[in-house]
Q: What sequence folds into this?
């Protein structure tokens, strides 16, 4: 790890984070949660919020896919997505649901300002982001897809969306 220039857990916790938070709403799979934590670590994101019945650390299956990211990334659990969204709005975040809806913005067309605080809500593996949560968000973002299937696994969707945010805002 030294040769790769990777941060230790302590260095990660002390490092300045990107003002991006992934919110996981009623995600069933602890493995998906662990994968999102790992992605959040890779991109030095501020946090991952879990809501509803989404598994959250400490959890054996999360640990298995997080590969240590459950120790580095700040994770907070909320009883429901509305509580998480309220906290984020109070902190000045713009909040998008990652969902296919009428009027959603294609991810490649999303315009974001440098250092803008952004939260992305990712929903349940089958039902997506709940309509009540979408109503609380500032908008919806959709990943362009050209094939027969029009959905991605939540951990894959999180990787695509979070990378695009990091690329658009922070990679010069």
A:
């Amino acid at each position: 790890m030294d040769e790769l220039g990777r941060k230790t857990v302590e260095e990660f916790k002390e490092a300045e984070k990107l003002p991006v938070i992934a919110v996981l709403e009623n995600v069933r799979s602890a493995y998906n949660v662990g994968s999102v934590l790992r992605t959040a670590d890779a991109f030095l994101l501020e946090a991952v919020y879990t809501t509803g019945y989404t598994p959250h650390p400490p959890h054996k299956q999360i640990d298995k896919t997080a590969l240590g990211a459950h120790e580095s990334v700040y994770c907070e659990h909320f009883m429901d997505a509305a509580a998480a969204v309220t906290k984020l709005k109070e902190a000045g975040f713009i909040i998008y649901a990652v969902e296919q809806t009428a009027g959603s913005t294609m991810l490649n067309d999303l315009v974001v300002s440098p250092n803008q605080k952004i939260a992305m809500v990712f929903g349940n593996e089958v039902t997506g982001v709940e309509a009540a949560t979408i109503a609380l968000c500032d908008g919806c973002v959709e990943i362009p897809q050209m094939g027969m299937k029009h959905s991605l696994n939540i951990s894959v969707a999180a990787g695509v969306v979070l990378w695009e945010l990091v690329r658009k805002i922070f990679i010069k």
Summary: The chain is about 35% helix and 20% strand. The beta strands are 18-25, 45-51, 75-78, 94-98, 105-106, 118-122, 139-142. The radius of gyration is 15 Å.
